[in-house]
Amino acid sequence: MKHILLILTGGTICTRVTEDGTRAVSAKAAAQLKLNFLNNCAYAEEIQIEESENFYVLSENMTIDIWNRLIDYLRTVDFSAYDGIVIAHGTDTLAYSAAMFSYVLTDAKIPVFFVSSQRPLSDPLANGNANFKAAVDCIMAGITPNVYVTYLNISDGKMYLHLGSHIRQCENYSDDFESFDAIDISMLSDASLEKIKKAYPSKEKHPICTLYGDWHLKDTVLMIAPYVGLNYDAFSLGSYRAVLHGTYHSGTVCTQTEEHHDKYSILYLLNRCEENHVALYLSPSKVEGEVYDTVPTVARHHNAPHFLWGMTTEASYAKLVLLYSLFDREEEIDAWMKLNVNFEMYPIE
């Protein structure tokens, strides 16, 4: 008998369609996930699924406070009593939560899966039931402990297994999740499981912290996305310890320094960060190799940013939030940012 803990955080996978056509979180709709599986699974008698405390929040409403509530709940769980944990979560912020808990649960001895659905489960086109079953299949097969996402992409009809620290948010107008090393598990096999075991050996993980302890996540990291006309005077930095600044696809940002244009330049923001004792991180961006000449311009600034390369934006943000919640000294944060905690840094040219 396999024992699985099901945590229902909410999202589309736990919603119903209301009379006015909107989607709302519903306890009855959430319960359908377990019932659908048990009623359609050939090995249902071999599994005991225990439902946990439920959170019931649309994932676009996910906050750091709710992450902390989930962490507090997980601290009460006896992981040794289960063969796996499945967390039902909405799609909108799934990649951020999967990344965060990849760090928080780096040393977990059982696999943890985030599952979602692109439509309410009452819709026959919903992929939530399939995503949940795929997660349970992996647990039943003895997958290596880590944090994963199982998701049936709509565009090609294939079921993919993603490492939590690698998955990226869906693009606009798309119901597909992607990661650079996603594994097609439409036909789960021993070969797939062996590939996972070799790619992510537990001995190469470096836990930042244990789940247990007197710590909580803090809202001290500001994330900024680049766009034409981004005015840095629009941001107040006083309550933050770090800024994670995205880049254009070439790893670049605006360095315009002509008269009356300083407020649009990353150099201006670096000056403001220095004044407010705020660290700035560029992601993804690198200074080595063939780069545009705006990049060394940024690197030569007397308050040069930290260049992050090889992590997703979601994994970078989650890692910074955790580190700036755990540590006060910049030296400790810098050391952990350079360390591959749970395979979040993947090889990329």
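Second entry:
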Amino acid sequence: MRKGRGIALLPICVFLALYLGLGILFEYVMKIPMGFYNVPIVIAFLAAILVACLQNRELNFDKKLEIMAQGVGDKNIITMLLIFLAAGSFVGVVGRSSAESVAYCMLSLIPARFSVAVLFVVACFVSVAMGTSVGTITLLTPIAAAVSTASGFNLAFCVASVMGGAMFGDNLSFISDTTIAACNGQGCEMKDKFRENFWIALPAAAVTLILILILSFQIEIRGQVSQPYHLLQVIPYVLVLIGGIVGLNVFVVLLTGIVSGAFIMLIGGHVTPVEILKNMGSGVSGMFETCMVAILVAAMCALIREYGGFDALLSWIHKIFRGKKGGQLGMGLLVGTMDIATANNTVAIVMANPIAKEMAEEYGITPRKTASILDTFSCIFQGVIPYGAQMLVAISAVNELGCEISAFQIMPKLFYPMLLLLSSLITIMKSSERTKYK
């Protein structure tokens, strides 16, 4: 084992200081809308890599480039990048009308009394199918506002239900960038991570639904939302969902979704062949920054590992967290802290991956359990922080409709992330200690 050197973690501290510092400056001092998301994250990582390259004069610059290249060239990193691009293409093809069709179909079939429960269930389905919580919130928040206006439900209650359902899918979807990052970073199959996660997320979702129904029966209903819909467009989502659950290769699943989605959209006359290609390109382009972050983090972490930074961190963690349960809790707090600092759960997972992998080996935690913990805890924190993309997008969508709402009105009604945290802690406490850490 390399000698642990705490100073080797300096690049991570530089990144967090730049990204968090500029985010606070933009968001709360300069009052720039979506301030945290105006911070050039790639530039912040480049600055961190520069600091890493200036450290450890025992190695020349060519050797450092070689170490970074080995980190970036890892099979899991390459696989992750290709899946990101394929998932972006799929989302570009199916577009937003499919998700809206699911929502309007269920709202038209189910009594208005259950409208908020429908919003939560639809958000769960759409986010699992689309693999994006932000995309789900963007699509369904205007519908949540319409439900509030027509039926009389509290606006914050409706929006929070959509956000909770969106985080459910962000955590479980086979094409979510968080799932892709966690599984490939830990070298486990997506179906195995799904099965590990499902029995943590399901109780939280079930209790959330019960709470929503209880609160719904205390509201006097005024009316119901009614809009046209096209159920045929839901088929690509269903195919992707089924393919992922039965364990088909993720590239086969995504290709099936892309081909079926393109066929349905073309046959239905919803788009032209040129528009399909343009939409695919836009979907792929939307993944470029995520891909660049994955590459830069892999390069930076390769140097930090070589310098002994991870060994120092593991040594500190062992002093605080004991046994297998302590290791799992430590992983959750690690990725949660990264998420609070970056306000981006995918970035938090990518940054925590190499550290968590070494922790898993030390504490005897399986790759599927590690991937599940990273994805779950990152979604818990991302789902409640008031400056996260999910919260900011929801507020922005409501404000565009002429309604006023704040993060602090929504946060107390975010039942799902809170219950997911409780479910995760119970699962960790119930886990076996038979495997001893080194």
